[in-house]
Amino acid sequence: MIQLFRKERMWRTHDLQRSYDVVIIGAGVHGLATAYYLGKDHGITNVAVLEKSYLGAGNSGRNTAIIRANYRTPEGVPFFARSLALYESLSRELEWNLLFNQCGHLTLAHTDSSVDGLRVRAETNQIMGVDSRVIYRDEIAKLVPALDMSDRPRLPVLAALYHPPGGIIRHDAVVWGYARACDRMGIEIHPFTEATDIHATGPASRNAADTPPGIEPPEGKITGVETAKGGIAAKTVVNCTAGWATVVSRMAGVSLPIVTQPLQACVTEPLKPFLDKVIVSANLHVYVSQTDRGDLVMGAEVDPLQSYSMLGTLPTLEQMATYTLELFPQLHNVSVLRQWAGICDMTPDFSPIIGGVEGLEGYYLDVGWGTYGFKAGPVAGKYLAECIATGKTPELIEPFALSRFRNETLVGEKAAAAVSH
Questions:
Q1: How would you classify residue 359: left for phi > 0, otherwise alpha for psi between -120 and 50, otherwise beta?
Q2: Alpha helix stretches (DSSP H) within 4-160
Q3: CA 362 to CA 44: how far, in whole Å?
Q4: pTM exceeds 0.90, yes or no
Q5: Strand pairing partners for 367?
Q6: Domains of the chain
Q7: Quick one: how many helices (H) and strands (E) in the chain?
Q8: Is 35 exposed, middle or buried (0-12, 13-18, 19+ CB in 10 A)?
Q9: Lowest mean pLDDT among 55-59, 196-200, 247-251, 275-279
Q10: Residue 219 — φ and ψ, nearest 5°?
Q11: Which one of 11, 108, 138, 200 is CB 3.0 to 4.6 Å from 220, fit for a cystine?
C-alpha cells in the first residue's frame, strides 16, 4: 500500500503565548532565516514568527529563484558573496534538499555603454574576490548555443558579465527548510496570524506621518505586538515584510523611505532541456532560466506605478515575451502557463535597510530589498540575528542602516540591481 502522507509534520501548530523574547513579523525567507540563526548561533528560541497568510506567501514564493553575488558597490559585493557562500552549504546544514544549481549567470550587454558598465562591475567583483569576468561573442555562443548571436535582433549581444557561481535554487524549499529547522529548535511559527499593531513605551503621540522617512522617532521601547489572535508581550520586534514594510513600520511609528511596486514574472510549459545558464539582459530588462522540470521562468522590470497588486498584466506579459524572443526566437510557439507578481519594497538607493532603529529600542528592520531580497535571505538573517543577540551591529550590515538617509551616506546599487535579477 502506498503511503500518501507524512508521519512527521514539517512544523507544528502552536497556541499563541502571552509573551516571547523576539517576535518576527513575516514568515518568508528573511523572517525564518533570522529566527533560525537566533536559535542556532545564539540559543534564543523563545521566538514567534508571525505570518498573515501561509509560509512564503509573499515574495519568497513569488520570485524567480536566481542567486548571484556580482553586484556593483564595495558594500554590496561582500554582502551578497557571503550570502552565496551560505546558500552553497545550506542543504547540508538544514538536512533538506534545496535543489541548488550553480549553473552560471550571464548579464548581457547590447550597447557600448552597457559593456563599459559590465567592465566596471567585473573589476569591482574581482578586486573583492568574486568570480566574475566580461566575455565576448565567441565565448557566449559556446556557453549558450541557443542564444541568438546574429545581427538580426534590434540590439545584438555584444558582451556579457559571466558569473560562474550564480544559479537558481528552489525558493519554496528554502522556506520549508528554514521553517522545519526552526520548529526542531522549539521556535514557534504562526501562519494566518496577522500583526495589527506594535506597542511601545515613550511619547504616545509618536506618529509616522509626522516623521520624515529616515528620521527616527522620539525615544521609546518596544513592549509587544497586537495580532488578530490577541496581544503578545515582547521586548524585540523584527519587521521582515518586504512589500508591506511601510504598513507594518507605521504601526511602530517609524516612517520608511520605501515605495512598493509590483514585479511580474511568468512560466512556460515544460520543454526539453536546452538552457543551462541564467540569462539576464541589462538593456532589454528581461531574465530567463530553465528549471529542472523544463519550464522557462521569465521576469520583467518592476511596474512603473506603485501598487500592492499581485496580479499579472497583459502589457508586461507582452514585454517579457517580446524581449525573450529577441534572445531566443525559436520559442515563438511556446505556451505561457502562469503569470504572477510580487510586491517589491524599493528604496531610493536600491539597497536594503537592515538593523535597529535609533530612538526605538527593540525594533529591528530587514526590509527595502526591492527586486533581489531572496538572494540575501541567509546573510541578512544571520547578521541581523547577531545584531539582535549582541546589541552590536556587525560590520557587514553597518552600511545599510536606516540612518544613512539622514546622514546622506547612500549605497547606490542601481547599476547592478535595476535589471532586477
A1: left
A2: 29-42, 76-94, 112-127, 137-143
A3: 15
A4: yes
A5: 353
A6: 22-64+172-258+349-417 (3.50.50.60)
A7: 10, 19
A8: buried
A9: 55-59
A10: -60, 145
A11: 200
